[in-house]
């Protein structure tokens, strides 16, 4: 319901977006009462900007609901947000999401090894986690098939759903299926170390179009297919007995207008005023990250400490606000990281704090949209220093909110904003500390020049454009494949 345009307006392609996590997470307030909260993460923030399609999201709402009245009520509440839930029970979540996705694939795709003591344990539990992963992917496919109509585009997202293209094509060979990875795809030498390396590649290759954020990730995927599966890599993609899976790069963006417009809102203006008053006389440095190993939060904070150590005159004139959004809190590695970060922040604040001020405000929370926009707008220097990231969108969001301030971006993964940012090696604390000094001392002309470059990029490479390009390429790929079969 709600799919047809009642006003008979222009045709909009039906798009089923399938991702592990829905853009909203559900919180139970009563037997049949649910409240919905915004989820965090790059994928959600990008896809919110996609408006060209008659789109529905299919995914997990982040809760375990086993009773029928609860499931029904949640399905109804989500329908208003154009979302369709996949109900995963606790055991599946434990094995598929915490286990295979977040403890195996996520670290592997970001080149982070498992700690030695976990490695053997993981090897033992691998088979059951992999089975749960396949089962969960089939559960997503079942929900897709309930809602699918001929001609729909089905767009599968991320490392959680690498089996989904295969499950969907088993259901209907003619279904238009795209798969997009929001993380890096590692070198084939890393992918090789995965027990299920071949099954995963084959399952993804069932898609018509496979997309990555960068050309390098696409290249890594193609070479994994040629080296591990022995298939043929072509400039177009991967060929298996005459069937082509198109592989290409589609760099993501944000809905920049949403941020620019938000700056005019009364709430945001008030927040900006409050923040300016609170930090009068100090330069504001900002980090916004999920509290994840790949985000390089401890390294960033240590670099800030080094800067304070070497630049005593800045100690009372600068503050670092680090928003660390809690994430995957049931996974032990994430719990360890939380205590590690708290320990470092406590030590530095003890060392450089005064009775009236501390150098680091570290918050374990997510901010709502008006708070976040205000914070971006008052920031002088943003520190986006992930150790490795698919495509970091915090840098884009910051730039979109900076048109009056023209703050400086310190960035570790060049990807697309390279020329406007100060680029750093996030592993090198000395280099990041120097970059902080350079950013704080940068002249207004230089800031203006760099900001112009970034702003132009962020406002022209948007999430809308990204999604349209992917979907139209997927439509074309399917048409071309049909022509080839006819020939
Ligand atoms: C990254 C992933 C997303 C994921 C997000 C948040 O951005 O690419 O697929 O949704 O992190 O992580 P979570 O595990 O909470 O969904």
Automatic annotation (TrEMBL):
In the C-terminal section; belongs to the trehalose phosphatase family. In the N-terminal section; belongs to the glycosyltransferase 20 family. This is alpha,alpha-trehalose-phosphate synthase (UDP-forming). It comes from Escallonia rubra. The lineage of its organism: Eukaryota, Viridiplantae, Streptophyta, Embryophyta, Tracheophyta.
């Amino acid at each position: 319901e709600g799919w047809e345009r009642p006003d008979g307006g222009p045709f909009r392609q039906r798009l089923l977006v399938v991702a592990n996590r829905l853009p909203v997470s559900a919180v139970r307030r009563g037997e049949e009462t649910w409240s919905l909260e915004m989820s965090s993460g790059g994928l959600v923030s990008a896809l919110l900007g996609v408006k060209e399609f008659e789109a529905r999201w299919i995914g997990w709402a982040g809760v375990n609901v086993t009773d029928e009245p609860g499931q029904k009520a949640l399905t109804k509440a989500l329908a208003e947000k154009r979302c369709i839930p996949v109900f995963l029970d606790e055991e599946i979540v434990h094995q598929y999401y915490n286990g295979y996705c977040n403890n195996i694939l996520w670290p592997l795709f970001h080149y982070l090894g498992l700690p030695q003591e976990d490695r053997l344990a993981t090897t033992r539990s691998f088979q059951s986690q992999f089975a749960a992963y396949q089962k969960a992917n089939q559960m997503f496919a079942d929900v897709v098939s309930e809602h699918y109509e001929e001609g729909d585009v089905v767009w599968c997202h991320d490392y959680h759903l690498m089996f989904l293209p295969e499950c969907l094509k088993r259901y209907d060979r003619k279904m238009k299926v795209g798969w997009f990875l929001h993380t890096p795809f590692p070198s084939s030498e890393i992918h090789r170390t995965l027990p299920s390396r071949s099954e995963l590649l084959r399952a993804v290759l069932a898609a018509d179009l496979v997309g990555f954020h960068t050309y390098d990730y696409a290249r890594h995927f193609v070479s994994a297919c040629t080296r591990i599966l022995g298939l043929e890599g072509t400039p177009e993609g991967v060929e298996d007995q005459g069937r082509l899976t198109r592989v290409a790069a589609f760099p993501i963006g944000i809905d920049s207008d949403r941020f620019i417009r938000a700056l005019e809102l009364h709430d945001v203006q008030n927040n900006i005023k409050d923040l300016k008053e609170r930090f009068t006389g100090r330069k504001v440095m900002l980090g916004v990250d999920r509290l994840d190993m790949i985000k390089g939060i401890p390294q960033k904070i240590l670099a800030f400490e080094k800067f304070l150590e070497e630049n005593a005159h800045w100690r009372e004139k600068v503050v670092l606000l680090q928003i660390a959004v809690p994430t995957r809190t049931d996974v032990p590695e994430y719990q360890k990281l939380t205590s590690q970060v708290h320990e470092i922040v406590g030590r530095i604040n003890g060392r450089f704090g005064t009775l009236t001020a501390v150098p680091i405000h570290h918050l374990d929370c997510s901010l709502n949209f008006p708070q976040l926009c205000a914070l971006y707008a008052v920031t002088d220097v943003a520190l986006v220093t992930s150790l490795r990231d698919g495509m970091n969108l915090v840098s884009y969001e910051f730039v979109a909110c900076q048109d009056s301030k023209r703050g400086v971006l310190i960035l570790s993964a060049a990807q697309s904003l390279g020329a406007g940012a100060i680029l750093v090696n996030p592993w090198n604390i000395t280099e990041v500390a120097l970059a902080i000094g350079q950013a704080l001392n940068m002249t207004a002309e230089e800031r203006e020049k760099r900001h112009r470059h970034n702003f132009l990029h962020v406002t022209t490479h948007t999430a809308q454009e990204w999604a349209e390009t992917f979907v139209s390429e997927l439509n074309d790929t399917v048409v071309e494949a049909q022509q080839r079969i006819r020939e």
